[in-house]
Specification:
31% of the residues lie in helices and 12% in strands. It has 115 residues and is an alpha/beta fold. The protein has a single domain, classed as 3-Layer(aba) Sandwich (Rossmann fold). The strands form 2 sheets. It has a 3-stranded parallel beta sheet with strand order 1-2-5, with no helix packed on it. Strands 3-4 form a two-stranded antiparallel ribbon. Strand 3 and strand 4 form a beta hairpin.
């Protein structure tokens, strides 16, 4: 649902998309130019304000448990929240939409293949 599928959806709507990963060189230089960041890097609280430009929109897709067993995302929410125009929290952000889309895809596949 994220990564390449998300990039393709944005491209279809004439978005300019840059895909990065945990080993991308100069990652913060790239992310600081983005108007919208969809973060799914797989590392708890990885993205800090140093990676984000003022007024950006940040969509945190990550889901982890920290050292206190509290849910957190790939974005350091408390560090970033005052710098951005909008941010999805973890928990309470995009999780329900992710589940809905997975269910939709399962139903679509079952109908298509008559399962």
């Amino acid at each position: 649902i994220v990564g390449k599928p998300m990039a393709l959806l944005l491209l279809r709507e004439n978005g300019t998309v840059t895909i990065c990963h945990s080993k991308t060189k100069n990652l913060s230089e790239i992310t600081k130019r983005a108007d919208i960041l969809v973060v799914a890097i797989g590392k708890p609280r990885f993205l800090t304000k140093e990676y984000v430009k003022d007024g950006a929109v940040v969509i945190d897709v990550g889901m982890h448990r920290d050292e206190n067993n509290k849910l957190c995302g790939d974005v350091d929410y408390d560090d970033v929240v005052d710098k951005v125009s909008a941010i999805t929290p973890v928990p309470g952000g995009v999780g329900p939409m992710t589940i809905a889309m997975l269910m939709n895809n399962c139903v679509y596949g079952a109908k298509k293949f008559q399962i």
